[in-house]
């Protein structure tokens, strides 16, 4: 990371953030283009699937740390999705929003590893993002206000 920051951004993370022009989507694109460790993608049935969890967390952390101002000011912060990790699917499953086939249920319930990049893992993560986006749409319709993906789960049950 340090070498790429030096090479492309004068050694300053602030320059990376500034070069995105207050766009969360642009910053995610810059991060994933310049830093391979942030390229969260898998091959799923012959198609590349990009989830960019780490890059989105970086942007969300900036937004939160700076309270939406200065380095954390992004005019399109609502464009980032929920972070497709293991916690969100577990919550969605517990709430009955995600349902798995019996073999997958047995694997998860027995704490067997879901192989990173496997079809099951990609499906779980992608379906979690999709489910939260659908919940966000319902919240927007029901409450008449725009919410970020990270706000969707708590508001859904108000």
Automatic annotation (TrEMBL):
Catalytic reaction(s) noted: queuosine 5'-phosphate + H2O = queuine + D-ribose 5-phosphate
Function description = Catalyzes the hydrolysis of queuosine 5'-phosphate, releasing the nucleobase queuine (q). Is required for salvage of queuine from exogenous queuosine (Q) that is imported and then converted to queuosine 5'-phosphate intracellularly.
Q: Name one GO biological process term.
A: tRNA modification
Give the E.C. number(s).
3.2.2.-
Top-level EC class:
hydrolase
Any Pfam family from its record, for instance, is Q_salvage
**Among its keywords, does the record have Plastid?**
no
Q: Which UniProt keywords apply?
A: Hydrolase
Question: Could you confirm whether the keyword Signal appears in this record?
Answer: no
Which branch of life, at top level?
Eukaryota
The record's family statement is: Belongs to the QNG1 protein family.
Identification of the protein by name: Queuosine 5'-phosphate N-glycosylase/hydrolase
Gene Ontology molecular function, alphabetical: hydrolase activity
């Amino acid at each position: 990371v340090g070498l790429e920051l030096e090479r492309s951004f004068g050694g300053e993370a602030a320059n990376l953030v500034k070069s995105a022009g207050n766009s969360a989507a642009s910053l995610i694109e810059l991060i994933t283009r310049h830093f391979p460790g942030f390229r969260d993608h898998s091959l799923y049935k012959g198609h590349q699937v990009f989830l960019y969890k780490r890059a989105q967390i970086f942007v969300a952390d900036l937004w939160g740390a700076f309270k939406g101002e200065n380095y954390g000011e992004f005019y399109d912060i609502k464009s980032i999705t929920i972070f497709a990790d293991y916690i969100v699917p577990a919550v969605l499953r517990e709430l009955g929003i995600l349902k798995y086939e019996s073999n997958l249920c047995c694997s998860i319930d027995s704490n067997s590893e879901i192989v990173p990049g496997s079809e099951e893992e990609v499906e779980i993560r992608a379906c979690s993002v999709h489910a939260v986006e659908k919940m966000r749409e319902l919240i927007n319709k029901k409450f008449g206000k725009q919410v970020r993906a990270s706000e969707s789960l708590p508001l859904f049950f108000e």
